[in-house]
Amino acid sequence: MSSIIVAKQEQRQIRTYEKNEKLLIQEGGYISPIPNLWEDILIGVVLKKPILLKGPSGSGKTKLAQSISEFFQQPMHSVNCSVDLDAESLLGFKTIISKEGQTVIEFVEGPVVQAMKEGHILYIDEINMAKPETLPILHSVLDHRRMLTNPFTGEVIHAHEDFTVIAAINEGYVGTSPMNEALKNRFVSFTIPYLAGVQLREIIQNLFPQAGVSLVESIMNINEDLKKQVMNGLLSEEAASVRSLLDAMALAEHIPVRRAIQYAIAEKLDDKMEQKLVMELVDTWVK
């Protein structure tokens, strides 16, 4: 592990990290399908670089952010972006309260302000779902200045030295728009692919220790076929979501595999032909 990460851990006085992926699984953490990806992202965090996680739905971006929070023992504040996201959702809002018999106006701090002041992680999920005009308010937070003038209070906030920003995007999905260059250039970007092979099998076996060998094999084979059809352009990316696959596995411990895949994967797809293809793939492995 990079000495810069170890040094940062000592600075924050947190426990020593053991380079053992099984430990991360047991703690519900993220496992990287790409060598060095996990450590490279940690280095970016230590260097105070805003981190952008790009990948399909269900590839583990939120789990990765949660694992970083666990690794550094740093609380995380989440912002779920949508077209309705506004400055108040990010920074906070004024409200009228009764205090010592008097009516006063108090400012309730939002996730950005809280994370900056406390040195916590700010996780911005689906950042490309937000309206482009909403996000420029974060530009000074994300660049070398690491500061913000709160338009609601006039307060100038300088970020705590441990303040970290992690954002995630699902590229090409309905309702998303390309990030403007001024915003994108403030991030260090990492592509987060789906888990596969030995790592995926290990997660399944750890999460479902009572599952039979034949059930695990069926789920693994179905997943491989789904990924192939995604790569061939015949299925949407969400058909190969690890999150959905684990949902299917949980159901399959109690109901037939075919129905489990139908509920957890096929029914989530909007295209009827894609739904049919998923079930045809299942039928090649489940009789």
TrEMBL record:
InterPro entries: AAA+_ATPase, ATPase_dyneun-rel_AAA, CbbQ/NirQ/NorQ/GpvN, ClpA/B, P-loop_NTPase. SUPFAM superfamilies: P-loop containing nucleoside triphosphate hydrolases (SSF52540). Gene3D superfamilies: P-loop containing nucleotide triphosphate hydrolases. It comes from the Bacteria. Signal peptide: none annotated. Residues 47-198 form the AAA+ ATPase domain. One of its GO terms (molecular function) is ATP binding. Coiled coil: none annotated. Belongs to the CbbQ/NirQ/NorQ/GpvN family. PANTHER family: MAGNESIUM-CHELATASE SUBUNIT CHLD (PTHR42759:SF1), MOXR FAMILY PROTEIN (PTHR42759). This is AAA family ATPase. The lineage of its organism: Bacteria, Bacillati, Bacillota, Bacilli, Bacillales.
